[in-house]
Write a structure and sequence with these properties.
The complex is a heterodimer. Chain A is an alpha/beta fold. Chain A contains five helices and eleven strands. In chain A, helix 1 crosses helix 5. The chains are: A alpha/beta, B alpha+beta.
């Protein structure tokens, strides 16, 4: 599997996802600078977390205008898998690959802690190593993770089974008490229509190493490597 | 003060914080009346903040050497060797005065400043810590200050992508008018790629990189060198405004350039901005520097030389670049969309010469500006000793059961969970945080290796005020103990000395006492000081803060996979072993603070026996490194039962504690704050007790882990869930109340 990680000014989880990809794939991803529109042929594009452009204007709004993002959109439309984590999710909504927006957390504070997620769609290239209804523990670290879309969009996401993860209680129940940021319908991650673009607020790359306290994030990278190795 | 005053009157001199005697010295050095820009430069360079004029005499007494120390105090940060060609570079620095005036920006730029101190030496910052002290919870400003400071620290560190992995938060009414915000950064560099600030190479370009210079923060260093009064709020314009995004770019650009061999010297622009950075670079290099101020990138038109030299705009660096490498360096900074300007040259004159509009506006001989900076051995009086409280007297009138007392203590402002604070800090970014906030020490893996750094900050100001010598010892010993309890070999410390007005002999007595105690502890524990910062004049209307020598300690873990232990109970049925002697010393304890009407914050603090510290600590560390304990926690604030409760909550496993047969009152045994003590757990306690006996270490089994409650003696118990609610709820409830 050949992967590219998009590096914007202010990206700060680029190295973390590089390490997670290396661990699962056995080889390094390409670290691709945002200003370079000439994106090599890759099997996977990752838009990592961080504070691209310092979150100025709106989180992700400026990075969405980067030369390389036009190319990312074109590749996504051709079916190349694109994973946006945290600020990457924000960028993917800003550039129109995913519907809705990520608003300021309901508590108006940055929040960094482990959350429980329920896997809602294990039928994608990103989630094939999980099973439906599986409960996984993954950290969040964000100021703007409060997913919002109009009811029509939310209904469509539900009807088309495009919600990949929801915040849940440790036992798996999806309840308001388990929602760290006020996200509509406890949404933590969503897919595009083609199911080849995933945006998620939690950071799977941060719990992919037992020494750091958990490995529930690792199956995402292992699964991508397996799925895309056979594809290529 | 921003206009150029044509004439230098005694009032102008006084406004610049210089005494008449100090101004006489300026005249002697210059051989003429200084120009305004020159006066401004003397003013900031000779401020307490930059010159350490009241503290230097004492700081020289601190031990600064060990075989693993690469660079001690005097550079931007301290450097120690951690093996395998890697160095750890770290420092703690205060941003107290600005944080009180404008908590968000004050705290944020405190973080930004200490980050620059570390990456200017070639290190990638890997962890931030902070030691925060606020006024009494009931003081009307406290909530606002807590909220702003925490948001500011998070706002800067989170955006930079450097994890904030731990620290301290305390409340005491002595900080009502002067909060303390001490920020610490730890970075890692290759030992052969460490950068220093001494300028060299006559004719070489001096390059300015980073943000543009604006009018913010002018005279920040001078503001931080005076007491507060009722007009403190008017000083808001002296507080700088931070831009962590620019600093992130500056970090990446600097590290990219540092990977080449283009840099001769580099220095960040912190307090006193372009002035102190250029003076330091030229003084350390024994050379002169000449600037054309018209080349300095500025944010606003018509900035005067005075303003340009005294601005404390953030996110700026000054470097000397090798000839022929300027274009390559420029390309890197332009890629990161940062300013890059050659603003001057290294000269052989030993003078700082500034030109503006073709005119010389400043021409100061650098060696006397630095070497003849005032240094005072200020009068001091030792702190009168407080009486040692007998346990029975101290406990008079306190009739709480052990678990009732515990429930109140774990919910007290001093001991409650700080989760509300650290969940606002990204403590996991960089994916190397092995132990998150809340334990004895934070543990951060050295990226790409199996080794890890343990990091802690410690100080118990209520001990320091009662007995500065014991308090100074205790601050160092507790940092050493916290590192030890996580399995690390303690290596070195950075200190942040926060005190009141040094012109008062009793304050200087506190300073002298703390230095004496710290020195003793550093020597006894092989734990030298490699960097530090002093913040004086933490007073408002004549009332000073508790003496607060905050200690930031760093230790090394050789193998993070096997040689660390958790704070939380790891298994049911383990024996709980107490290491160290319990004398029942209750003076200055949290128990008395919360429960005693007559002895709250009274008496002598617990004495620190440094030999016992060393022996007990070395014994415990050896057990941990050899995998012989399942959990370990040091005993500090709140005493033994609070430590048990913290272990139970962290591991979600209860415990049964047996009261010993002794004359000591139960509450004294459970809540005294005797030093040099640890709790360890093991499934094979007999082996440990034998080992302890052989080594001459006091060790007794005090109970067993298990169940969902904490039981003390005969059936006095509390459920873990009640304990957890008490512990977790105080701070969020307090912050949510209006």
């Amino acid at each position: 599997m050949k992967a590219a990680v998009i590096v914007s000014p202010g990206s700060n989880c680029d190295r973390d996802v590089q390490v997670a990809l290396r661990q699962s794939a056995g080889s390094d991803p390409i670290m691709h600078w945002h200003a370079d529109a000439d994106l090599p042929d890759v099997d996977l594009i990752v838009v990592p977390g961080g504070f691209s452009y310092g979150d100025y204007l709106r989180a992700g709004a400026l990075a969405a205008q980067s030369p390389v993002i036009r190319e990312v959109v074109a590749r996504a439309n051709k079916g190349v898998p694109v994973l946006g984590i945290c600020n990457g999710f924000q960028i993917l909504t800003e550039c129109g690959l995913l519907p809705g927006v990520l608003m300021r957390n309901a508590g108006l504070k940055f929040i960094c802690r482990d959350v429980d997620l329920r896997v809602e769609a294990a039928d994608t290239v990103f989630t094939s190593d999980y099973v439906n209804r599986q409960i996984i523990r993954i950290p969040v670290a964000h100021n703007e993770g409060n997913y919002f879309a109009d009811d029509e969009t939310l209904n469509r996401l539900d009807d088309e089974n495009r919600v990949a993860f929801r915040y849940c209680c440790p036992e798996g129940e999806v309840r308001a008490a388990a929602n760290p940021n006020g996200a509509a319908r406890n949404i933590a991650g969503i897919l595009n229509e083609g199911r080849n673009v995933l945006g998620m607020m939690p950071h799977p790359e941060r719990l992919a190493d037992a020494l750091l306290g958990g490995t529930d994030g690792r199956p995402m990278f292992d699964g991508l490597v397996e799925a895309l190795a056979t594809a290529a | 003060m921003n206009e150029i005053t044509p004439q230098i009157t005694p009032e102008v001199v006084a406004e610049h914080g210089l005494t008449p005697e100090e101004y006489e010295r300026v005249l002697r050095i210059m051989g003429r009346e200084p120009k305004m820009t020159e006066l401004g430069i003397f003013s900031v360079m000779w401020s307490e903040h930059c010159s350490y004029k009241s503290s230097k005499f004492w700081l020289k007494k601190l031990p600064t050497e060990a075989p693993w120390v690469i660079c001690g105090p005097g550079e931007n940060a301290g450097v120690i060797d951690i093996g395998d060609g890697k160095a750890c570079i770290f420092k703690m620095e205060s941003h107290n005065h600005p944080s009180f005036i404008e908590p968000y920006q004050g705290a944020a730029t405190g973080v930004g400043g200490i980050l620059r101190d570390v990456f200017t030496m070639g290190a990638r910052p890997v962890a931030n810590m902070n030691a925060l002290r606020f006024g009494a919870p009931e003081h009307p400003k406290t909530r606002h200050l807590v909220s702003g400071v925490v948001a500011g620290i998070g706002g800067y560190g989170n955006c930079m992508g450097i994890p904030t992995v731990g620290g301290e938060v305390n409340f005491d009414s002595s900080y009502n008018g002067n909060i303390l915000v001490n920020a610490m950064t730890v970075g890692i560099a290759d030992t052969d790629k460490i950068f220093y600030s001494a300028a060299a190479g006559i004719g070489n370009a001096v390059v300015y990189v980073g943000s543009k210079t604006g009018r913010d923060g002018i005279h920040g260093a001078t503001m931080a060198s005076a007491e507060f009064d009722d007009d403190t709020e008017d000083k808001r314009p002296t507080v700088q405004v931070g831009d962590p995004f620019t600093e992130k770019l500056l970090l990446e650009a600097c590290l990219e350039l540092m990977a080449t061999d283009a840099i001769i010297a580099i220095q960040d622009m912190g307090a006193a901005g372009l002035t102190s950075s250029s003076v330091e670079m030229s003084d350390k290099g024994g050379v002169g520097i000449e600037f054309d101020l018209d080349q300095v990138p500025v944010r606003e038109d018509a900035m005067t030389p005075y303003e340009i030299m005294l601005s404390e705009s953030q996110e700026r660096m000054l470097m000397v670049v090798k000839p022929g490498r300027e274009d390559m360096a420029r390309a890197i900074f332009e890629k990161w969309e940062l300013d890059f300007a050659i603003i001057g040259r290294v000269t052989d004159t030993n003078r700082l010469v500034l030109k503006s509009g073709g005119e010389v506006v400043c021409d100061i001989p650098v060696p006397p500006l630095v070497a003849e900076a005032p240094e005072y051995e200020r009068p001091w009086v030792p702190t009168p000793p407080s009486p040692v409280l007998a346990a029975a007297d101290a406990l008079e009138g306190i009739d709480a059961s052990p678990t009732d007392a515990l429930e109140k203590l774990v919910a007290s402002p001093d001991l409650c969970s700080r989760r509300w604070v650290w969940e606002q800090y990204d403590h996991m970014v960089m994916a190397d945080t092995v132990c998150r906030p809340g334990g004895d020490a934070a543990i951060v893996r050295v990226h790409g290796t199996d080794r890890a750094l343990a990091i802690t900050t410690d100080c118990t100001p209520r001990y320091c005020v009662a007995d500065p010598v014991q308090g100074g010892r205790q601050a160092v010993a507790e940092a050493w103990r916290n590192l030890t309890a996580s399995g690390a070999k303690p290596l070195a410390i950075t200190d942040n000395m926060n005190f009141g007005n040094p012109e008062r002999p009793e304050i200087m007595g506190q300073f002298a006492g703390c230095i004496e105690g710290m020195t003793e502890a550093c020597l006894a524990l092989d734990f030298p000081v490699v960097s530090g910062n002093v913040s004086l004049y933490n007073e408002t209307n004549g009332t000073g803060i508790l003496p607060t020598p905050a200690i930031g300690g760093v230790g090394l873990i050789e193998d993070a996979n096997s040689e660390i232990t958790s704070t939380g109970f790891a298994a049911k049925g383990d024996a709980i072993v107490l290491i160290g002697d319990t004398a029942g010393h209750l003076g200055r304890s949290i128990l008395l603070r919360e429960f005693s009407a007559s002895h709250s914050d009274a008496g002598a603090p617990p004495p620190v026996d440094l030999d016992a510290e060393r022996q007990n600590g070395d014994f415990v560390r050896d057990l941990i490194v050899n995998g012989r304990v399942s959990a370990c926690h040091d005993i500090s604030d709140g005493g033994l039962l609070v430590a048990v409760a913290e272990m139970a909550l962290a591991g979600a496993i209860g415990a049964e504690i047996t009261l010993p047969e002794t004359d000591m009152p139960d509450l004294a045994w459970l809540f005294s704050e005797d030093q040099a003590r640890y709790l360890i757990t093991s499934s094979a306690p007999d082996d440990l007790l034998t080992a302890a006996k052989t080594a001459g270490i006091p060790a007794i089994v005090i109970g067993m882990t298990g169940g969902a409650q904490l039981t003390v003696g005969d059936g006095n118990s509390i459920s873990l869930s009640d304990l957890r609610n008490a512990h977790e709820n105080w701070l969020p409830d307090y912050m949510a109340a209006v």
